[in-house]
Write a structure and sequence with these properties.
Strand content: under 5%
Largest sheet: 3 strands, antiparallel
Structural class: mainly alpha
Helix content: 55-70%
Order of helices and strands: HHHHHHHHHEHEEHHHH
Number of helices: 14
Shape: globular
Strand order of the largest sheet: 1-3-2
Length: 382
């Protein structure tokens, strides 16, 4: 029997059947044919290319493999993505950044041929069954959705924002973190207004795009609420995909970059503050609890959203008074464009109620932490 036929038989046995014994049977077939390794690798590249056509991106694949399988499978999928990259067309700076951020793609340690074949088949079974995702670039298929503008360098404003947020995450003093985060959001507001005015006067105004941001366990609901608040604060909209562990954020490119930066920073600050609050609780004789953490993060997200809303209105008003044109029509047209893009991508959405918020101490401490992490601007999420 040819090696290609051996791989075909193994795939027919394992990839279309969820039973563990089917996976073992197929792994035995592959383990008996040492020449199957090269054919397996080639088939893996085909699975990755098919995932791109269904709207997935490198970070999405790594996220779902880490969520569903394990570290060895993550290294394997990273190696497959790197092997496929030279055969892909250029897909923009956001895609390139995801390739640069791939985890170590070195092959996982080999134990025996049977175990290796079983791990490869488990990965390929997952890749085969991935659903189609919404294209992130308007008017394009999943194969074409790269995200971002080709060759777009990071602006000086975003570099300053990144540096301020890094300092806010590193400091051990809440008041300093508050001041640094507030300054970062002020720069975000000004940068967003500048981008809006430049686009409004350009011969071909920008159109809104989209990106996916991971919302990882545990306490995914509270984290998704926080991301909603940050997205709306920066003239974007977010839709959470709970089963696949990410939110899709729709907005203009500069605002999407701001959302990624600010959400990551606030999450780092929230988790650091939660660790300190838990230490204080333990010192008072109370053990760490899951409900404390859930309530802490829910309160943090709620309070951060409230403060973002107030700061957003003030920052936009200040920018408008300093400009020579009325900002309201410009911002309103961009908001309409973002809403229309969101509705085309997600014609049907549902709302969910935040669960597990029952710890009064956690809520109090989370609210206090959000006050210290005060940042920018927010408009109500529809």
């Amino acid at each position: 029997m040819s090696t290609s036929r051996t791989v075909d038989r193994a795939f027919e046995t394992a990839l279309y059947d969820t039973a563990d014994d089917a996976l073992d049977t197929a792994a035995s077939l592959l383990a008996a044919d040492p020449a199957a390794d090269a054919e397996l690798a080639a088939r893996g590249a085909e699975f990755v290319a098919a995932a791109w056509r269904r709207g997935w991106q490198p970070a999405d694949l790594v996220r779902v493999v880490r969520r569903e399988l394990g570290p060895g499978h993550v290294r394997s999928v990273a190696a497959l993505i790197r092997a496929q990259a030279p055969h892909d067309r250029p897909r923009g700076p956001r895609w390139a950044a995801q390739l640069d951020a791939l985890p170590d793609g070195a092959a996982p340690p080999r134990t025996d041929r049977f175990s290796h074949a079983g791990a490869v088949l488990a990965l390929y079974r997952l890749l085969l069954r991935l659903p189609a995702l919404e294209p992130l670039v308007a008017g394009e298929t999943g194969e074409e959705a790269g995200g971002g503008r080709e060759g777009r360098p990071e602006s000086r404003a975003l570099a300053r924002i990144r540096a301020l947020l890094a300092k806010a995450e590193a400091t051990g003093y809440p008041q300093e973190a508050e001041a640094l985060s507030a300054k970062a959001q002020e720069l975000m507001a000004r940068h967003s207004v500048d981008e809006a005015l430049l686009s409004a006067h350009a011969p071909s105004p920008d159109a809104p795009g989209a990106c996916r941001i991971g919302v990882d366990p545990p306490y995914e609901q509270a984290k998704a609420v926080l991301l909603d608040a940050v997205a709306d604060a920066n003239h974007c909209r977010a839709v959470w995909n709970e089963p696949l562990g990410f939110s899709t954020v729709v907005g203009f490119e500069a605002d999407l970059e701001a959302v990624e930066l600010l959400y990551t920073s606030l999450l780092v600050q929230a988790e650091a503050a939660m660790t300190k609050a838990e230490a204080a609780q333990r010192a008072g004789g109370r053990g760490r609890t899951k409900t404390f953490r859930q309530s802490f993060l829910a309160a943090y997200a709620h309070r951060a959203g409230t403060r973002l809303r107030a700061a957003a209105e003030a920052a936009t008003a200040d920018s408008g008074s300093a400009a020579d044109v009325d900002l309201l029509p410009v911002l309103a047209s961009r908001e309409v464009a973002v809403t229309e893009r969101l509705e085309r991508m997600f014609p049907e959405t549902t709302t969910t109620r935040l669960r597990g918020v029952s710890d009064a101490a956690g809520w109090t401490e989370g609210t206090r932490a959000a006050d210290h992490a005060r940042v920018g601007r927010h408009r109500p999420l529809t």
